[in-house]
Write a sequence for this structure.
């Protein structure tokens, strides 16, 4: 018998491989066809499985609702009703929380948001639109009290209170918290509104269990024109720190913390004898080429009781040189400005133990004075050039003419902020 050659063996093996490949291809065609035929039933089975899963989740949620209600039925009954108050359950927390969209369902994990609308009358003191304006938000609101006091704020320091430009609380605004009282919901905040005019709407967002750190940013609340902002908050311990990024803290020389200021919290009290506060102005930030001085003042002295001395509210002066100081007249009948050589006496009738908002604005040789938003006129009254003389609060120069009364919310800007 003839023995097959290796070549013949290889040829036979090659034919068998082709047959195998053809068989696999035909089999694949049958498998694909079968899969396409049964796909609809497989999809139905998948959908049934999804429905079963959702039913199980809904049942679990219902169980949580029942347990929640059984633990405290007020959790359900206390929810406000009405078309403006629609509630849903948020399963992201454990076990979940009730979230009201009537008060404004907040996003970014904030349970609530409420709109704040700037009325036209609030902006009537300025023309046009204001940019990067530090808006005051203050009051006492039960819904801003801590949850332990019946409110909706979870953090005892109020850290889960923010401000945003949108109702979803996704675009946080820069703000500074001056004071917060968790037991009552009393709050004093300053909010930097990028564009403010009559009708502008911003939002306050609150109730976020995940927040445990301070969300405020004072240094960005006050724009770069501000070189010093002093709130004197608290009313118990005098705080003379500067809220701007310049950190121009004041050194206290006998002033005390007092309560009853227009901003709802503390102020600085001055005894008219020796008390004042000072910043050395070593960096020359309190420039006098163009500026706005802004202060809340309360004279506690009676007209004619100062021996002819005009108590000093603030000044950039020392014992021998003067660039500018602001006083109130001894008879409570005017303000007094002194530029080192000349007096300016804008007339106004002040009353003892009454708070007033005073603004002095200067640019290009013209000084304009306002009391409670009303102009006392613009005057050709030049102020000396930039200086490194110290800034004094509660005295004209730190040596004399001490203020008799209280001061609050003192702000200095190296720009004219009023028109």
């Amino acid at each position: 018998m003839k023995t097959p050659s290796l070549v013949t063996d290889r040829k036979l093996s090659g034919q068998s491989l082709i047959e195998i490949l053809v068989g696999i291809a035909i089999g694949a065609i049958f498998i694909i066809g079968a899969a396409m035929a049964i796909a609809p039933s497989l999809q139905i089975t998948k959908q049934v499985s999804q429905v079963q899963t959702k039913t199980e989740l809904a049942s679990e949620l219902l169980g949580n609702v029942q347990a929640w209600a059984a633990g405290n039925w007020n959790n359900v009954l206390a929810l406000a009703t009405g078309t403006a108050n629609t509630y849903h359950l948020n399963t992201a927390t454990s076990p979940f929380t009730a979230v009201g969209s009537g008060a404004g369902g907040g996003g970014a994990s904030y349970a609530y948001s409420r709109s704040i609308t700037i009325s036209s009358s609030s902006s009537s003191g300025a023309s046009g639109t204001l940019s990067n304006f530090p808006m005051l938000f203050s009051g006492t609101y039960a819904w801003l009290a801590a949850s332990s006091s019946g409110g909706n704020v979870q953090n005892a320091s109020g850290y889960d209170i923010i401000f945003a430009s949108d109702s979803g609380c996704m675009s946080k605004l820069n703000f500074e918290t001056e004071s917060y009282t968790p037991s009552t919901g009393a709050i004093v905040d300053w909010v930097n509104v990028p564009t403010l005019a009559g009708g502008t709407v911003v939002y306050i967002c609150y109730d976020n269990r995940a927040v445990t750190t301070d969300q405020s940013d004072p240094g960005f609340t006050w724009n770069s024109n501000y070189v010093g902002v002093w709130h004197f908050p608290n009313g118990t311990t005098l705080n003379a720190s500067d809220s701007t990024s310049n950190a121009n803290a004041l050194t206290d020389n006998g002033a005390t913390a007092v309560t009853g200021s227009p901003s709802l919290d503390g102020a600085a009290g001055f005894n008219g004898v020796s008390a004042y506060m000072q910043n050395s102005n070593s960096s020359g930030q309190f420039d006098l080429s163009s500026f706005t001085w802004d202060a809340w003042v309360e004279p506690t002295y009676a007209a004619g009781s100062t021996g002819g001395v005009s108590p000093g509210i603030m000044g950039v002066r020392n014992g021998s040189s003067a660039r500018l100081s602001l006083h109130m007249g001894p008879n409570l009948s005017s303000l007094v400005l002194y530029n080192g050589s000349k007096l300016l006496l804008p007339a106004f009738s002040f009353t003892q133990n009454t708070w007033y908002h005073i603004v002095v604005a200067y640019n290009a040789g013209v000084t304009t004075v306002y009391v409670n938003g009303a102009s006392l006129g613009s005057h050709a009254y030049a102020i000396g050039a930039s200086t490194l003389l110290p800034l004094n609060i509660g005295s004209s120069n730190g040596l004399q003419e001490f203020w008799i009364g209280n001061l609050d919310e003192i702000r200095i800007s190296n720009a004219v902020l009023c028109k």
Q: What stands out?
A: The mean pLDDT is 80. The helical segments are 6-71, 74-77, 218-221. The chain is about 20% helix and 30% strand. The domain at 226-413 is CATH 2.60.120.200 (Jelly Rolls).
